[in-house]
Amino acid sequence: MKETLIENVTNTQILIDVRSPDEFKDATIPNAVNIPLFSNDERQTVGTIYKEQGPNQAKWKAMELVSHKIPNILENIRNLANDHDAEPIIFCWRGGMRSKAVTTFASFSGLNVSRLIGGYRAYRNYILNISPSLLPETGIIIHGNTGAGKTELLQLLKDKQQPIIDLESIANHRGSVFGQIGLRKPHNQKMFDGLLFDNLKEISHYKYFIMEAESKRVGHCIQPDYLLKVKQRGLHILLTSPIEERVKRIKNEYIIPYENESWFESTVVQAISIIKKRLGLEIYNDIYNMFVHKQYDDFIELLLTKYYDACYDFKSTEYIDTFIPVDGSNLEIAAKQIQDIILNHVTDSTSIKV
Description:
The chain is α/β, with parallel strands linked by helices. It has 16 helices and 12 strands. The strands form 3 sheets. It has a 5-stranded parallel β-sheet. α6 packs across α9 and α7 (150-159) packs across α16. 34% of the residues are buried. The mean pLDDT is 93.
Protein backbone atom coordinates (compact mmCIF):
# COMPACT_ATOMS: atom_id res chain seq x y z
CA MET A 1 0.00 0.00 0.00
CA LYS A 2 1.39 3.39 -1.04
CA GLU A 3 1.30 6.08 1.63
CA THR A 4 2.13 9.76 1.73
CA LEU A 5 2.45 12.59 4.24
CA ILE A 6 0.28 15.69 3.97
CA GLU A 7 3.32 17.92 3.37
CA ASN A 8 4.15 15.88 0.26
CA VAL A 9 0.73 16.22 -1.40
CA THR A 10 0.94 18.21 -4.66
CA ASN A 11 -1.41 19.76 -7.20
CA THR A 12 -1.03 16.65 -9.37
CA GLN A 13 -2.97 14.67 -6.78
CA ILE A 14 -6.62 14.78 -5.72
CA LEU A 15 -7.74 14.26 -2.14
CA ILE A 16 -10.62 11.84 -1.51
CA ASP A 17 -12.37 11.91 1.86
CA VAL A 18 -14.00 8.52 2.57
CA ARG A 19 -15.63 9.61 5.83
CA SER A 20 -19.40 9.91 6.16
CA PRO A 21 -21.25 12.86 4.57
CA ASP A 22 -21.83 14.51 7.96
CA GLU A 23 -18.13 14.35 8.84
CA PHE A 24 -17.25 15.77 5.44
CA LYS A 25 -19.82 18.54 5.82
CA ASP A 26 -18.45 19.49 9.23
CA ALA A 27 -14.89 19.96 7.99
CA THR A 28 -12.54 18.52 5.42
CA ILE A 29 -9.36 19.38 3.57
CA PRO A 30 -10.21 22.20 1.12
CA ASN A 31 -10.95 20.92 -2.42
CA ALA A 32 -11.27 17.31 -1.22
CA VAL A 33 -14.04 15.17 -2.75
CA ASN A 34 -16.33 13.02 -0.61
CA ILE A 35 -16.71 9.36 -1.63
CA PRO A 36 -18.04 7.93 1.64
CA LEU A 37 -17.51 4.37 2.74
CA PHE A 38 -20.43 4.58 5.20
CA SER A 39 -23.60 6.62 5.16
CA ASN A 40 -24.32 8.70 8.26
CA ASP A 41 -26.67 6.05 9.65
CA GLU A 42 -24.26 3.22 8.86
CA ARG A 43 -21.43 4.97 10.66
CA GLN A 44 -23.65 5.41 13.72
CA THR A 45 -24.65 1.75 13.61
CA VAL A 46 -21.04 0.54 13.44
CA GLY A 47 -20.06 2.91 16.24
CA THR A 48 -22.85 1.66 18.50
CA ILE A 49 -21.87 -1.98 17.91
CA TYR A 50 -18.23 -1.13 18.64
CA LYS A 51 -19.17 0.38 22.01
CA GLU A 52 -21.68 -2.29 23.02
CA GLN A 53 -20.25 -5.50 21.50
CA GLY A 54 -16.61 -4.80 20.73
CA PRO A 55 -14.34 -4.19 17.72
CA ASN A 56 -14.64 -7.61 16.06
CA GLN A 57 -18.43 -7.46 15.85
CA ALA A 58 -18.19 -3.87 14.58
CA LYS A 59 -15.75 -4.88 11.84
CA TRP A 60 -18.02 -7.71 10.75
CA LYS A 61 -21.01 -5.40 10.55
CA ALA A 62 -18.93 -2.88 8.60
CA MET A 63 -18.04 -5.61 6.09
CA GLU A 64 -21.71 -6.49 5.67
CA LEU A 65 -22.63 -2.86 5.07
CA VAL A 66 -19.94 -1.95 2.55
CA SER A 67 -19.14 -5.15 0.65
CA HIS A 68 -21.78 -4.57 -2.02
CA LYS A 69 -20.71 -0.91 -2.41
CA ILE A 70 -17.02 -1.50 -3.12
CA PRO A 71 -17.31 -1.74 -6.95
CA ASN A 72 -19.22 1.55 -7.13
CA ILE A 73 -16.77 3.30 -4.77
CA LEU A 74 -13.80 2.15 -6.85
CA GLU A 75 -15.49 3.21 -10.07
CA ASN A 76 -16.08 6.69 -8.63
CA ILE A 77 -12.41 6.93 -7.62
CA ARG A 78 -11.28 5.79 -11.07
CA ASN A 79 -13.55 8.27 -12.85
CA LEU A 80 -12.38 11.09 -10.60
CA ALA A 81 -8.73 10.24 -11.27
CA ASN A 82 -9.33 10.15 -15.03
CA ASP A 83 -11.38 13.36 -15.09
CA HIS A 84 -8.71 15.29 -13.20
CA ASP A 85 -5.70 13.39 -14.55
CA ALA A 86 -4.55 13.15 -10.94
CA GLU A 87 -3.48 10.49 -8.46
CA PRO A 88 -6.11 9.94 -5.72
CA ILE A 89 -5.00 10.36 -2.12
CA ILE A 90 -7.40 8.54 0.22
CA PHE A 91 -8.00 9.74 3.78
CA CYS A 92 -10.36 9.36 6.72
CA TRP A 93 -10.30 10.83 10.24
CA ARG A 94 -6.93 9.53 11.47
CA GLY A 95 -5.69 7.23 8.73
CA GLY A 96 -7.47 4.23 10.20
CA MET A 97 -9.55 1.33 8.94
CA ARG A 98 -11.69 3.24 6.44
CA SER A 99 -8.87 4.74 4.39
CA LYS A 100 -6.83 1.53 4.68
CA ALA A 101 -9.74 -0.56 3.38
CA VAL A 102 -10.50 1.69 0.42
CA THR A 103 -6.82 2.11 -0.50
CA THR A 104 -6.26 -1.65 -0.31
CA PHE A 105 -9.23 -2.50 -2.53
CA ALA A 106 -8.28 0.26 -4.99
CA SER A 107 -4.69 -0.98 -5.20
CA PHE A 108 -5.81 -4.58 -5.74
CA SER A 109 -8.01 -3.29 -8.57
CA GLY A 110 -5.04 -1.76 -10.35
CA LEU A 111 -5.68 1.86 -9.43
CA ASN A 112 -2.70 4.09 -8.66
CA VAL A 113 -3.72 5.50 -5.27
CA SER A 114 -2.06 6.45 -2.01
CA ARG A 115 -3.28 6.69 1.57
CA LEU A 116 -2.78 9.86 3.59
CA ILE A 117 -0.84 8.97 6.72
CA GLY A 118 -2.67 10.18 9.83
CA GLY A 119 -5.75 11.29 7.87
CA TYR A 120 -7.59 14.55 8.49
CA ARG A 121 -6.20 14.81 12.03
CA ALA A 122 -2.62 14.83 10.70
CA TYR A 123 -3.60 17.49 8.15
CA ARG A 124 -5.10 19.71 10.85
CA ASN A 125 -2.07 19.38 13.12
CA TYR A 126 0.20 20.18 10.19
CA ILE A 127 -1.59 23.36 9.11
CA LEU A 128 -1.86 24.70 12.66
CA ASN A 129 1.87 24.21 13.14
CA ILE A 130 3.03 25.58 9.78
CA SER A 131 0.60 28.48 9.19
CA PRO A 132 2.37 31.06 11.41
CA SER A 133 5.58 30.67 9.40
CA LEU A 134 3.74 31.38 6.13
CA LEU A 135 2.42 34.82 7.16
CA PRO A 136 4.38 37.72 5.62
CA GLU A 137 6.03 39.94 8.21
CA THR A 138 4.23 43.21 7.45
CA GLY A 139 0.47 43.74 7.51
CA ILE A 140 -1.29 46.54 5.61
CA ILE A 141 -4.51 46.89 7.59
CA ILE A 142 -7.55 48.65 6.08
CA HIS A 143 -9.94 50.25 8.55
CA GLY A 144 -13.20 52.02 7.87
CA ASN A 145 -16.85 52.31 8.81
CA THR A 146 -19.40 49.82 7.51
CA GLY A 147 -20.11 50.59 3.85
CA ALA A 148 -16.81 52.41 3.31
CA GLY A 149 -15.94 49.87 0.62
CA LYS A 150 -13.29 47.75 2.36
CA THR A 151 -14.37 44.39 0.90
CA GLU A 152 -14.68 45.75 -2.64
CA LEU A 153 -11.31 47.43 -2.25
CA LEU A 154 -9.69 44.16 -1.20
CA GLN A 155 -11.07 42.49 -4.32
CA LEU A 156 -9.74 45.29 -6.52
CA LEU A 157 -6.31 44.95 -4.96
CA LYS A 158 -6.42 41.18 -5.42
CA ASP A 159 -7.26 41.71 -9.10
CA LYS A 160 -4.12 43.84 -9.27
CA GLN A 161 -2.06 40.86 -8.01
CA GLN A 162 -1.71 42.20 -4.48
CA PRO A 163 -1.38 39.69 -1.57
CA ILE A 164 -4.78 39.68 0.11
CA ILE A 165 -6.20 37.89 3.15
CA ASP A 166 -10.01 38.12 2.93
CA LEU A 167 -11.18 36.85 6.32
CA GLU A 168 -14.87 37.41 5.56
CA SER A 169 -14.62 35.17 2.52
CA ILE A 170 -12.66 32.55 4.45
CA ALA A 171 -15.26 32.58 7.26
CA ASN A 172 -18.16 32.83 4.77
CA HIS A 173 -19.57 35.59 6.95
CA ARG A 174 -19.41 39.39 6.73
CA GLY A 175 -18.67 39.70 10.42
CA SER A 176 -21.77 41.45 11.77
CA VAL A 177 -25.27 40.66 12.99
CA PHE A 178 -26.45 41.01 9.38
CA GLY A 179 -23.36 39.27 8.03
CA GLN A 180 -24.98 36.02 6.93
CA ILE A 181 -27.65 37.56 4.69
CA GLY A 182 -27.51 35.95 1.26
CA LEU A 183 -24.70 33.57 2.16
CA ARG A 184 -24.67 29.86 2.81
CA LYS A 185 -23.89 28.36 6.21
CA PRO A 186 -20.86 30.07 7.80
CA HIS A 187 -17.70 28.01 8.07
CA ASN A 188 -16.67 26.54 11.39
CA GLN A 189 -13.21 26.95 12.90
CA LYS A 190 -11.78 23.84 11.22
CA MET A 191 -12.74 24.96 7.73
CA PHE A 192 -11.62 28.51 8.50
CA ASP A 193 -8.17 27.29 9.52
CA GLY A 194 -7.87 25.15 6.41
CA LEU A 195 -8.88 27.91 4.02
CA LEU A 196 -6.63 30.40 5.81
CA PHE A 197 -3.73 27.97 5.37
CA ASP A 198 -4.41 27.79 1.62
CA ASN A 199 -4.54 31.59 1.46
CA LEU A 200 -1.25 31.91 3.34
CA LYS A 201 0.46 29.43 1.01
CA GLU A 202 -0.50 31.62 -1.94
CA ILE A 203 1.00 34.81 -0.47
CA SER A 204 3.88 33.45 1.63
CA HIS A 205 6.52 34.66 -0.87
CA TYR A 206 5.45 38.28 -0.47
CA LYS A 207 7.02 40.68 2.04
CA TYR A 208 3.62 42.07 3.10
CA PHE A 209 -0.09 41.31 2.97
CA ILE A 210 -3.28 43.39 2.94
CA MET A 211 -6.34 42.65 5.03
CA GLU A 212 -9.36 44.32 6.58
CA ALA A 213 -9.26 45.24 10.28
CA GLU A 214 -11.74 42.55 11.35
CA SER A 215 -12.65 41.86 14.95
CA LYS A 216 -11.07 38.84 16.58
CA ARG A 217 -14.25 36.88 15.86
CA VAL A 218 -15.40 36.71 12.24
CA GLY A 219 -18.75 34.96 12.01
CA HIS A 220 -18.33 31.64 13.84
CA CYS A 221 -14.53 31.72 13.70
CA ILE A 222 -11.68 33.17 15.74
CA GLN A 223 -8.60 34.74 14.16
CA PRO A 224 -5.36 33.06 15.28
CA ASP A 225 -3.15 34.97 17.69
CA TYR A 226 -0.20 35.14 15.26
CA LEU A 227 -2.38 37.02 12.76
CA LEU A 228 -3.75 39.39 15.40
CA LYS A 229 -0.23 40.28 16.55
CA VAL A 230 0.95 41.16 13.03
CA LYS A 231 -2.26 43.13 12.46
CA GLN A 232 -1.73 45.14 15.62
CA ARG A 233 1.77 46.29 14.65
CA GLY A 234 0.95 46.79 10.96
CA LEU A 235 0.54 49.84 8.74
CA HIS A 236 -2.97 51.18 9.30
CA ILE A 237 -5.04 52.79 6.54
CA LEU A 238 -8.38 54.51 7.19
CA LEU A 239 -10.82 54.29 4.28
CA THR A 240 -13.55 56.95 4.39
CA SER A 241 -16.62 57.42 2.22
CA PRO A 242 -19.59 59.83 2.29
CA ILE A 243 -22.69 58.50 4.03
CA GLU A 244 -24.61 58.56 0.73
CA GLU A 245 -22.05 56.26 -0.88
CA ARG A 246 -22.04 53.94 2.12
CA VAL A 247 -25.83 53.65 2.03
CA LYS A 248 -25.70 52.85 -1.67
CA ARG A 249 -23.11 50.12 -1.19
CA ILE A 250 -25.00 48.47 1.67
CA LYS A 251 -28.24 48.55 -0.31
CA ASN A 252 -26.58 47.00 -3.36
CA GLU A 253 -24.94 44.25 -1.34
CA TYR A 254 -27.54 43.31 1.26
CA ILE A 255 -30.95 44.36 -0.06
CA ILE A 256 -31.35 44.59 -3.83
CA PRO A 257 -30.18 41.02 -4.58
CA TYR A 258 -32.42 39.45 -1.92
CA GLU A 259 -35.44 41.66 -1.21
CA ASN A 260 -37.80 39.39 -3.15
CA GLU A 261 -36.64 36.21 -1.46
CA SER A 262 -39.14 34.56 0.89
CA TRP A 263 -36.67 34.52 3.77
CA PHE A 264 -35.46 38.12 3.44
CA GLU A 265 -37.86 40.08 5.64
CA SER A 266 -37.92 37.63 8.54
CA THR A 267 -34.12 37.32 8.51
CA VAL A 268 -33.58 41.08 8.66
CA VAL A 269 -36.26 41.56 11.32
CA GLN A 270 -34.62 38.89 13.45
CA ALA A 271 -31.21 40.59 13.05
CA ILE A 272 -32.70 43.94 14.09
CA SER A 273 -34.24 42.35 17.17
CA ILE A 274 -30.84 41.05 18.27
CA ILE A 275 -29.51 44.61 18.60
CA LYS A 276 -32.75 46.08 20.01
CA LYS A 277 -31.30 46.60 23.49
CA ARG A 278 -28.24 48.44 22.17
CA LEU A 279 -30.33 50.64 19.90
CA GLY A 280 -32.84 51.68 22.52
CA LEU A 281 -36.59 51.33 22.05
CA GLU A 282 -37.17 54.60 20.14
CA ILE A 283 -34.42 54.07 17.56
CA TYR A 284 -35.31 50.39 17.28
CA ASN A 285 -38.92 51.26 16.44
CA ASP A 286 -37.80 53.81 13.84
CA ILE A 287 -35.42 51.34 12.19
CA TYR A 288 -37.99 48.55 12.27
CA ASN A 289 -40.75 50.69 10.74
CA MET A 290 -38.46 52.04 8.03
CA PHE A 291 -37.53 48.51 7.04
CA VAL A 292 -41.01 46.98 6.96
CA HIS A 293 -42.25 49.97 4.92
CA LYS A 294 -39.34 49.45 2.51
CA GLN A 295 -37.80 52.84 3.21
CA TYR A 296 -34.46 51.19 2.66
CA ASP A 297 -32.22 54.25 2.27
CA ASP A 298 -33.49 55.77 5.52
CA PHE A 299 -33.33 52.38 7.25
CA ILE A 300 -29.68 51.85 6.26
CA GLU A 301 -28.58 55.39 7.12
CA LEU A 302 -30.12 55.27 10.59
CA LEU A 303 -28.66 51.82 11.20
CA LEU A 304 -25.21 53.04 10.16
CA THR A 305 -25.22 56.25 12.18
CA LYS A 306 -26.90 54.91 15.32
CA TYR A 307 -25.37 51.46 15.55
CA TYR A 308 -22.49 50.57 13.23
CA ASP A 309 -20.55 53.83 13.49
CA ALA A 310 -20.68 53.71 17.28
CA CYS A 311 -19.38 50.13 17.21
CA TYR A 312 -16.56 51.12 14.88
CA ASP A 313 -15.56 54.15 16.96
CA PHE A 314 -15.24 51.87 19.99
CA LYS A 315 -13.12 49.27 18.16
CA SER A 316 -10.81 51.90 16.65
CA THR A 317 -9.58 52.80 20.14
CA GLU A 318 -7.71 49.46 20.15
CA TYR A 319 -5.09 51.00 17.85
CA ILE A 320 -2.63 53.67 18.95
CA ASP A 321 -0.73 54.12 15.70
CA THR A 322 -1.46 56.89 13.19
CA PHE A 323 -3.98 56.08 10.46
CA ILE A 324 -3.15 57.00 6.86
CA PRO A 325 -6.35 58.43 5.31
CA VAL A 326 -7.64 57.21 1.93
CA ASP A 327 -10.79 58.52 0.25
CA GLY A 328 -13.07 55.63 -0.71
CA SER A 329 -15.45 57.58 -2.94
CA ASN A 330 -13.73 56.08 -5.99
CA LEU A 331 -12.34 52.65 -5.15
CA GLU A 332 -10.17 52.39 -8.27
CA ILE A 333 -8.36 55.57 -7.22
CA ALA A 334 -8.23 54.31 -3.63
CA ALA A 335 -6.60 51.06 -4.76
CA LYS A 336 -3.94 52.99 -6.67
CA GLN A 337 -3.33 55.21 -3.64
CA ILE A 338 -2.85 52.18 -1.38
CA GLN A 339 -0.37 50.68 -3.81
CA ASP A 340 1.58 53.95 -3.67
CA ILE A 341 1.44 53.93 0.13
CA ILE A 342 2.90 50.43 0.17
CA LEU A 343 5.76 51.51 -2.10
CA ASN A 344 6.49 54.53 0.09
CA HIS A 345 6.16 52.95 3.53
CA VAL A 346 7.21 49.32 3.23
CA THR A 347 10.94 48.85 2.59
CA ASP A 348 12.72 45.89 1.06
CA SER A 349 13.47 44.60 4.55
CA THR A 350 9.71 44.65 5.30
CA SER A 351 10.07 47.20 8.10
CA ILE A 352 7.63 50.09 8.10
CA LYS A 353 8.92 53.60 7.64
CA VAL A 354 7.67 56.00 10.29
